[in-house]
TrEMBL record:
PANTHER family: LARGE, MULTIFUNCTIONAL SECRETED PROTEIN (PTHR33546:SF1), LARGE, MULTIFUNCTIONAL SECRETED PROTEIN-RELATED (PTHR33546). This is Sorbosone dehydrogenase family protein. It holds the Pfam family TrAA12. Residues 71-285, 327-439 form the Pyrroloquinoline quinone-dependent pyranose dehydrogenase beta-propeller domain. Keywords: Membrane, Transmembrane, Transmembrane helix. It comes from Sphingomonas liriopis.
Amino acid sequence: MLKHVLRVAALLVVIAIGVVVYLAWPDTAQVPFDRVTGKRPSITQPRIQTLPTVKVADVVGWQGNQTPVPAAGLSVKAFAKGLDHPRWLYRLPNGDVLVAETNSPPREGGGIQGWVMGLLMGKAGAGVPSANRITLLRDADGDGVAEQRHVFMTGLNSPTGMALLGGQLYVANTDSVVRVPYTEGTTRIAAKPELVVKLNGGGNHWARTLVAAPDGRTLFVGVGSASNIAENGLPAEKFRANILQVYPEQKTFRIYASGLRNPQGMAISPFNQQLWTVVNERDMLGSDLAPDYLTQVELGDQFGWPWFYWGGYPDTRVDPQRPELQQYSKRPDYALGPHVAALGLTFAGDVKLGERFAQGAFIGEHGSWNRKPVSGYKVVFVPFAARGFPVEGAKPVDVLSGFLDKDGKAQGRPVGVIGDRTGALLVADDVGNTIWRVTAAK
């Protein structure tokens, strides 16, 4: 009996050593980061992993009067501090700002996978329970700091996206879109939210974003996949890895675009009134693949997930393969680099930070957990040409960095980005529990 116990113990030690060795020497990037960005990124051979590279910045938070570092010609200060995991922002017509204080719902399942995921979330600053709250912030005196804070809505389920349409405020929970009547200037919603449509929840990619469509009658809702590459079967991905178009009056929806592993920030282009989104691409192909991206989205588009990435490169891990779909896999418009976790998106029409940032898109990159070295952890700007697409040959421009300290630890992590009523850029920082306000330096 003792001999059996010793053998099992030795086996566990070997496994533990193997895990430690793997985590100590993960896959390291071999291609310069900027070569995997832009309209024509370098797409190298995949380095398929059984276990993902794990490299996430430890969280330390902001110390004292520290702030992120703005680009030359810009300045930054806190618009609101002491929030509870603020992730998403929405500006109301009167200039009030709504912030979704939210996080992942409790995850189903345990075992080793659940334990590892819990460790990673805690290490990345995402281990706190969801406040399930929307808070209203008001800067009545116009000094760039919100002196009023009101609990606007509660009783939600990991809410993210918010949008006004037809006198109703729509909120995207992780498992539904709901609405309440809205009166301008109100600081609290007491009405019980009305269900508009149910959304499939569970699994990975819990955050649901939404934006009002230019038609004034419908909403676009981003719903990420439940898994990395449909490893739990396609039935588990029903109505996921999609952008849905919701018809609120009929309380129904259709698939507007598909094959988007995790579409997060969405915005309507001021150039042509078309929908754009940023998408988190797949994991475990190595530190150089696959790039997250920014792209225009039209009705019927299919971007390849899970079978293809970046417009037709096959993912040989997916079973069954669907080679006949390769020709229909749309290539995205712009690569943001591998594993940056692009989440927030807004166009410069609402943001006025000077000539350098006058025409293009601002993107909040939450930061990688599975790349060595880490990527993201910043807000970037993609310049657009007059015809409404990224400038040929342009690379992402840092707008707000310094979220990692000199030791590579996370002081904050940017998520949602919007323009305030004055043209400043507001950035939700869910690890730093702060909303930052970026302006052109005077």
